[in-house]
Design goal:
heterodimer, A: 558 residues, alpha/beta, Rossmann fold, 3 domains, 6-stranded parallel β-sheet, 20 strands, globular, B: 167 residues, alpha+beta, Alpha-Beta Plaits, 2 domains, elongated
Chain lengths: 558, 167
């Protein structure tokens, strides 16, 4: 007989867990006691939200399931934003929560919250474990559900008497089978043939590549497919890194802050191959005018995404890696779409992203300098807002899983804790958190975690003393009425120093490279406070509800 | 926009009903009627939901239902030959010597059963599709309906076709 707590820890180890991000509390004391002399590594965060984001950052950077742990009530509730973030971006995490003893469930007991009820809409599945005997099976199922099909978060709620209760070892199946859960991995043969037929007839095809490619580790197949069929690729925010930035077929990001040439290509193409993407409103702009001349092939593992927003001509449900492999097997190399590619080269040449150079400290310059400095040897995490968009636009990503950002939910405060998690997945490269002065303050307490564990996260704060993206919208659409978007100056270096972290303030362009170099030279964490041009905007921009070729802040159309 | 009858086979576990109904409310669907009960498999339940929406929206909601781990099978019965029934219990004012005879006559035409006879009221039990029950309710309203209780619709395909787990 073993305690539930011991069964839990053994189950986690059986699933290959190497690290947990968590925060102790009353009802998880038995679990923490078991962790005390376990070989499982535990990182004590300073707020449970950070535990969820760290597990998420670890999962995105490694491709494995991330794990976080919190106590009942407020602890569990503090995980909610992190779980929702993972859910929106299909990130596999298992969130473990303590719960009041089963005899007190529903009793408004101290630190009780109905966390399975609360997280029902933001988890792929969740469990309330009722006895220690079912714990090992539940953990096995939780990891299986989180990490297969369209990945996502799974929560396991464990009452205190389940942790302390005794049970015998249960023989678990080699492979989990759930009769209500059977993801489709292989694409339907007839649909793949139809897709090949459309590909054969297209004159102006375009690949619209999303985060699903990263999730299924299909970047090599994607690049091979694009090259063989001679099709340009535009990526979503989540898809960045699936094709190297400098690849001649890469058009960069599309959508609200996409490149002009990507958005032009969408508007003029005659065939879209959407792969692991979901026609999100930030991508499509006004739906009716999105790809108005195109037939659409949509490849996705989640059948519910197909046809959700946009009518599709050829739906292919399946794991994008498997479907791309099938396409590659059946496809014949075809001649380059020379006229189309020439048009795209023309757009790329005449509508590049702008990087202002007037002696002031511009964020685009900082991102480009960092990109040139670290090249493909870094993981870049961002917060949400202007900092995120400038990074997505100007950093040159070479590899999948090196760009980690909260896309769907757009969670400010995500970056610092996610960067902590990413470090444990990729200890071989430096991890940068690109932040704004607004978003860094949403989880700034994690300076404590990176300091005490010497997690070498390099924090780049693009400090404009505004909630920059909201201010930009106020400037453009609310007559410059800056309602509650100005933030007072904060000396971030002093804050960092108070936690025992080194830092540097940067006020002019010539200090940028030395500061970034200093951060790399520092073995531990490092905080850089870049005092950037205050009213810098993210351009180009598609105003909400406009067609995506109606961008502001771009070049005059030639 | 028309009513769709969805037959949903689910694991018989705590919380399944709220997973299913939560999905409807969160995606902006109003459930017209709902019926849940055990079915031919001991560890499963069957939920019948009537929901109004256009075909595309219904397709989306079915796909979302299918994503729930505890949902085993979802079928839209709407365009198939099927039997649908509801049951209603209607307590209607029926004073002796006044309207009682008239009400009993209506009850007989509608092939309802009178399941309780009180001094001042009768309880009618009626089984039928939605239209029949609506019609009876409308007719009885003039006599004074004191209480009206109605189940959700249950539906089943005609012939040998079934909505089962396929095991």
């Amino acid at each position: 007989m073993k305690t539930g707590a011991k069964i839990l820890v053994e189950s986690l180890q059986r699933e290959g867990t190497e690290i947990i991000f968590g925060y102790p509390g009353g009802v998880v004391l038995p679990i923490y006691d078991e962790l005390y002399d376990s070989s499982l590594r535990h990182i004590l965060v300073r707020h449970e939200q950070a535990a969820a984001h760290a597990a998420d950052g670890y999962a995105r950077a490694s491709g494995r399931v991330g794990v976080c742990l919190a106590t009942s009530g407020p602890g569990a509730c503090n995980l909610v934003t992190g779980i929702a973030t993972a859910y929106m971006d299909s990130v596999p995490i298992v969130a473990l929560t303590g719960q009041v003893p089963t005899n007190l469930l529903g009793n408004d007991a101290f630190q009780e919250s109905d966390i399975t009820g609360i997280t029902m809409p933001i988890t792929k599945h969740n469990y309330l474990v009722k006895n220690a005997g079912e714990l090992s099976r539940v953990v096995q199922e939780a990891f299986y559900i989180a990490g297969t099909g369209r990945q996502g978060p799974v929560l396991v709620d464990i009452p205190k008497d389940v942790s302390t209760g005794l049970a015998d070892d249960v023989k678990l199946p080699e492979k989990v089978t759930l009769r209500g859960y059977n993801p489709t991995y292989r694409g339907h043969k007839r649909q793949i043939e139809k897709a090949l037929d459309l590909l054969g007839h297209a004159e102006r095809p375009l690949i619209y590549a999303g985060g699903g490619i990263i999730a299924s580790n299909a970047s090599p197949e994607l690049v091979e497919f694009a090259q063989l069929a001679s099709i340009p690729v535009t990526t979503t925010l989540m898809g960045i890194g699936c094709i190297p930035c400098h690849h001649p077929l890469n058009l960069g990001m599309l959508g609200m802050h996409g490149t002009e040439y990507a958005n032009f290509a969408v508007t003029e193409c005659d065939l879209i191959i959407a792969i692991g993407a979901r026609f999100d409103d930030r991508v499509t702009g006004k739906l009716e005018t999105f790809a108005p001349h195109a037939k659409i092939i949509h490849i996705d593992i989640d059948p519910a995404e197909i046809g959700k927003n946009k009518r599709v001509d050829v739906p292919i449900v399946g794991d994008v890696k498997a479907v791309l492999q099938d396409l590659l097997t059946l496809m014949k190399k075809r001649d380059a779409h020379e006229i189309w590619l020439k048009k795209i080269r023309h757009w790329k040449q005449h509508h590049p992203l702008k990087c202002p150079t007037n002696g002031a400290l511009h964020p685009q310059y900082i991102i480009r300098t960092l990109s040139d400095l670290v090249k493909d040897k870094a993981v870049i995490v961002s917060e949400v807002g202007q900092n995120q968009m400038w990074t997505a636009q100007h950093f040159c990503f070479h590899n999948p899983r090196t760009w980690i950002t909260s896309g769907g939910l757009g969670t400010m405060g995500y970056g610092l804790p996610a960067a902590m998690g990413a470090h444990f997945a990729r200890p071989d490269v430096p991890v940068f958190d690109i932040a704004g002065d607004g978003s860094i303050q949403m989880n700034i307490q994690e300076f404590g975690t990176i300091a005490s564990n010497q997690i070498p996260v390099k924090v780049v704060i693009l400090n404009n003393m505004y909630l920059g993206m909201v201010r930009q919208w106020q400037e453009l659409f609310f007559d410059r009425r800056y309602s509650y978007t100005e933030l007072p100056a904060v000396d971030f270096v002093k804050i960092a120093n108070a936690y025992g972290i080194d830092g540097m303030r940067v006020e002019s362009p010539d200090e940028v490279l030395p500061a970034l170099q200093a951060s790399l030279d520092c073995d531990g964490p490092f905080v850089m406070d870049f005092r950037i041009e205050r009213e810098e905007n993210v351009f180009p921009m598609v105003p909400a509800g406009a067609a995506i070729n109606e961008m502001i802040g771009g070049h005059p159309r030639i | 926009m028309k009513p769709h009858t969805l037959s949903i086979l689910v694991e018989n576990r705590a919380g399944v009903l709220s997973r299913v109904t939560g999905l409807f409310s969160r995606r902006g669907f109003n459930i017209e009627s709902l019926a849940v009960g055990p079915c031919e498999e001991p560890d499963m339940s069957r939920i019948t939901i009537v929901v109004i929406g256009d075909d595309e929206k219904i397709e989306q909601v079915m796909k979302q239902l299918n994503k729930l781990i505890d949902v085993i099978k979802v079928s839209d019965l709407t365009d198939s030959e099927r039997v649908e029934r509801e049951l209603a219990l209607i307590k209607v004012t029926a004073e002796l010597g006044t309207t009682r005879a008239e009400i009993m006559q209506i009850a007989s035409i509608f092939r309802t059963q009178i399941v309780d006879v009180g001094a001042k009221t009768l309880i009618l039990q009626v089984i039928g599709d939605k239209n029949k029950i609506d019609a009876l309710e409308k007719l009885l309203r003039q006599y004074g309906i004191k209480e009206f209780v109605r189940t959700g619709t249950v539906g089943i395909l005609r012939g040998s076709k079934t909505v089962t787990s396929g095991k």
